[in-house]
Amino acid sequence: MVVRDKWIHIKSSSSERSEWQAMASKSGVSLADLIREKLGVEEKKKRSGRPRRVAPRVDPAFLREVARIGNNINQLARRCNTERSAPSLSALYEIEELLKELINAHQVP
Fold first, then answer.
1. Neighbours of 24 (CB within 10 A)
2. Predicted confidence (pLDDT) per residue in 25-62, tens digit
């Protein structure tokens, strides 16, 4: 595995950066990996066959609120495990889907 611990800084216009970020997202890779690919740098070992997922950009305040909701769900799960009672699986899937919808609805461009 190649250890990359050195930085290269380049200047670009905001439109160039946006275009490169879009290309990287479309390819499912990081911006650094896109640049390495364009320069012809070969990777000695790939992480996995799956493309890298890019985290969605969302409002930080909204993300903190979603984290608080997740903490509350974890507390409920601990209590269910302690009391050996479980909520219905469909209710848990519904909560997961609602959280995903919330995050998608609040993405920042």
1. 19
2. 888 888 888 888 888 876 655 556 677 777 777 778 88
